[in-house]
Amino acid sequence: MATGLGPPIPRSEFLQSQFILLSFCIAMGLDIFYFKNIELIEKPSVKNDSEDSEDSDDSEDDEDESTSLYQAKGFERRGDHLVAGKYKAKERGSFRMGYGHHMRFRCNLYKAIGGKKWKDMGFCEQFPDVEDGEPFAELIMMSDCEGFIGPITSEKLYQDFMRYTTEAEKNLLEEGDLYLYNEWKKAFKCARHNGVVQFC
Predict the structure, then answer these.
(1) Please, which pLDDT band fits residue 29 given cuts at 50, 70 and 90?
(2) Does any domain span residue 74?
(3) H-type helices in the chain, by residue range?
């Protein structure tokens, strides 16, 4: 199922981002926030990535239910052309996992649906060899701690999660994997309605 969002993300950029994240963030956790019916209320001034990152983290507890979105370098197309800036949303949710579990979950998910193509990514000897449009590819090939997935890609991923529920229930055997499967499905179900799934 094609997403119509442009050429695939270069694997070299993905490899570089994953290596950096694993090197510096291995002891940290991945927070996922998801939003429905977002509305842009403020475009950002010119800042560097670290400043944008701090803004994003600080805004999660705002009383007006707002969040600052910026995209991870190399993964801009995952945002479905949404511009960076401060957004408000009518609905939101969240869940959390360790980076190590997120890495294993993506590999286990690929195995659960019968995936057989693997590649050596340096940080992982066997990582799913997927291209955009394949089942779960846009989640598997995504930054581990920054950026966001927009509503068009969320719709595609939600359909993937719905389609492979039976396989997941049968084949996701590691503790916590089925819980994460259902949380991801809930997140993309919400975000497909003019929303986003944000990685922090």
Answers:
(1) confident
(2) yes
(3) 11-25, 49-58, 99-112, 137-140, 151-163, 165-171, 177-191
